[in-house]
Amino acid sequence: MSNTISSNARRHVLKGTVAAMAMAGLASWTKLGFAADAKPLPGYADWKIPGDIIVHSNNTLETKRSAYGTSVITPNDQLFVRNNLPPPDAEILKDRDAWVVEIDGVAKPAKLTLAELKTMGLETTAMVLQCSGNGRGFFPHKPSGTPWKVGAAGCVVWSGVPVRALVQAHGGVKAGAKYMTGTGGEKLPDGLDPLSVIVERSVSADAMEDALLAWEMNGEPISLAHGGPLRLIVPGFTGVNNIKYIKRLAFTEQETKAKIMSHGYRITPIGGTSGPDLPSVQQMSIKSWINAPLPEDGAIKAGRVQIHGVAFGGTHAVKGVEVSTDGGKTWTAAKFVGPDLGKYAWRQFVLEADLKPGEYQLASRATDTSGESQPEARVENKSGYNNNSWLDHSIKVSVA
Amino acid sequence: MSNTISSNARRHVLKGTVAAMAMAGLASWTKLGFAADAKPLPGYADWKIPGDIIVHSNNTLETKRSAYGTSVITPNDQLFVRNNLPPPDAEILKDRDAWVVEIDGVAKPAKLTLAELKTMGLETTAMVLQCSGNGRGFFPHKPSGTPWKVGAAGCVVWSGVPVRALVQAHGGVKAGAKYMTGTGGEKLPDGLDPLSVIVERSVSADAMEDALLAWEMNGEPISLAHGGPLRLIVPGFTGVNNIKYIKRLAFTEQETKAKIMSHGYRITPIGGTSGPDLPSVQQMSIKSWINAPLPEDGAIKAGRVQIHGVAFGGTHAVKGVEVSTDGGKTWTAAKFVGPDLGKYAWRQFVLEADLKPGEYQLASRATDTSGESQPEARVENKSGYNNNSWLDHSIKVSVA
């Protein structure tokens, strides 16, 4: 394990700002942004950049707010990880093309290898991948679960076969099917009711229109950490609906009875009990946040400042973003920068501001093409899902 | 060095297809795509994926054609490297924000730190970075220089300050300036005339409109291998015009007298002598190639095949791509897939074809928005620059 850490550190050193320190023998974990008491990256994700990641647990790794760049795409080695179960054995990547996925709830059900999928179509989609609980760390009632702030999200390019092409090749969806249900290939713990632990989620069958069975992520075969060799990608839906190691894709009349669907990821009143009648966490809501300047950068030099961040609208494109430097009293339209990768990707925004010495509260508020804007207040819920409050995501900075 | 290789190998193993082999102790250099006699990656680029790279020399690393994915962006750890001089000491990355660049040939010349540049504007541009000699390996007269085939190119997202914003902030370009001249910060060998070795190039001053001084590449601070902490980005122009470690940007009445400009990168007749009167290698030409299927994949299974590749037009967007399976006798329009990242990026194309057993010659031919199409024949020249022949880039595959 120590060898693993040092290899990552070396990689980071050579690419990063601390190269010369390291060359001069001055590197230390703290200087690498890797606090002495920080948890190490788990083995399956030890190729991530340690200084860019907050390790909450072996199954929950967060991107630091300060690590987000301005290049639209989040690199693989900075992207967050959230696993509901430990990842399968790396053995499943031995022969990627031999991976089998079952297609059911279509006129002609089939089992297909990844090699066969690759002959059936090709699409590439840029999409924000965001954990349902991103922003949970801002809820004052301290919900159980990982206290993510902004870093359980990234903008990723996926390549794979369109689900609609698969469905078409297999005679279409069976009459009466209302849901698209994906089943993950994680090994289930012995001695438990499988439905109590299996990662199986249902989304509206309509979501198949833009969904992929993807084998590539940001130009590389999907890693074990991110669901390789094959992952269901449902653009605009929160992370849990994008099933890793997918082994079955079925069009079903009913939602799965798996507990992760019936009780997990439901918008439940604080103090209440979760259950299938409560709203399920599915499509993402309009959201944005500022990535620079940040309080951890220390006092900002007075004068021109480029305030920048990211904005995304779930299943709707972002129409505009406003930025406030006074905690939301006044707002100014920011401008978009960089390429538009489609409605499921995030847009970068920037506001050039001339700031005099003083204290500022920086906030951003995005609006999507359906007219929805970020609210000031989060929607309170037991588990801390779907936080898109602009106030919660605002930051206080000093200008000197 | 061996430790360096093993850390990369480990990283590749965990992300790649051979994970299980490695876990079972079966990994070998050849299985990692790293032939026993292959040269190791040089230290400044030892974080690249060894199995995805052909090491021609310490200064010339090529992406394998089989390594290109279908996610539009070329990841940093797969991207080619071509240095005209060895990179500067890594010390220059110790304090990136302290890097100084001189701006000259404007009304108010200045020296600016990278920290100051970051306050002056922000733009993000996706661009094909391609070595002038990419495709040299197809010239039958075997020009001196690296025999690149397709792998001295990648599509990269850059972030930095627009040069036009800098120019505006410094009173505009001086009257009479026709060129934008960038100077690299490489350490020059002692005892030689600096002009004979310095990396200094001039492009038309108009190119400043979309040029950047960039500090970020694909979401991460620019590595030493790729010109960090600061690189001049001139979208649509070949790699050599995108000056690494830039220390001076000047608007000049004349082209630089540096040898790399006056004699290097000139389209010279075979057997002739290079010189400033010959055409300089600047804007890229319309070009495309197929990345799959490839001969090295072995015999392809008869039936539906997804023939895919990339196409780009230099300073013009790609309008369309045709694909031939019979060596150019007949052509079929391919379709674009994936996001359009702007006119300087490449587009992915795909043609779905039903192939019966037999031998095929796969070719692609792109057309740009100015009406230019790839020619069948390369333009012969001494140093093997600007090869965009569709025939040279065609491949022969077997279907069984």
From TrEMBL, chains A, B:
This is Sulfite oxidase. Its cofactor is Mo-molybdopterin. Keywords: Metal-binding, Molybdenum, Oxidoreductase. Residues 364-373 have a biased composition (Polar residues). It comes from Limnobacter profundi. Residues 281-396 form the Moybdenum cofactor oxidoreductase dimerisation domain. Residues 363-385 are annotated as: Disordered. Coiled coil: none annotated. Pfam families: Mo-co_dimer, Oxidored_molyb. Residues 95-257 form the Oxidoreductase molybdopterin-binding domain.
